Amino acid sequence: MHGLSATATVTIAGRVWNGSVNSSWDNPANWSCGFVPYPVTDVLIPDVTVDPVIASGLTGEAGNLVMDPGASLALTGGTMRIYGSVSGGGSFNASSGTVEFRGSEPQLVVNGLFAGNTVMNMTVNNPAGVTLGGPLNVTGVILVQSGELASGGNLTASDASRTALIDGSRCWDCDRRCHHAEIPSYKIRL
Fold first, then answer.
1. pTM score, whole prediction
2. Quick one: which of 34, 37, 159, 161 could link to 139 by a disulfide (CB 3.0–4.6 Å)?
3. Which among 55, 51, 25 is positioned nearest to 38, based on CA atoms?
């Protein structure tokens, strides 16, 4: 007897945060379809009761990230890797952790993306570059691993102790604003 067989490809297009168990980004039960997002996954964070948190030692990843108005995402020592765009009217609190832009197409940090226009650490690892679309204050380390960070004059690197670092450069003047920084093979345009 000969049977029929067929194959099909199933693509899971995106993940929606539901926070049904707790606030831990890395808990599969907090996501639609029961999977934690990975680099090519588009992520939607709606306005829900329990918002996602990426804690110390954890890394969250998303292709395109959409945060609905009223939604929030917080880094509490962890790292968020973004491979696409970020949009929506939600709040992204990155005052304690690292945001890494890892796309392959140019990425734009939209004005007002981060709560208080502040991030602790920012890494650019995108050969096509990252552009700031508005004011951004980095209180920890700015690291350009590949590509270029184009600030358009919108970058401030300082915190309450007046210390922050552009990894690999020595270009500070007395008010802690960088006028020009060259990192071997990579650039920051300010």
1. 0.83
2. 159
3. 25
> Which residue has 């009761």 as its token pair?
49
CB-based contact 178:155 (threshold 8 Å): yes
What number is the average pLDDT over the span 50-56? 98
Compute the distance between CA of residue 153 and CA of residue 132 in angstroms, rounded to an integer: 9
3-state secondary structure the chain: CCCCCCCCCCCCCEEEECCCCCCECCCHHHEHHHCCCCCCCEEEECCCCCCCEEECCCEEEECCEEECCCCEEEEEEEEEEECCCEEECCEEEEEEEEEEECCCCCEEECCCCEEEEEEEEEEEECCCCEEECCCEEECCEEEEEECEEECCCCEEECCCCCCCEECCCCCECCCCCECCEEECCEEEEC
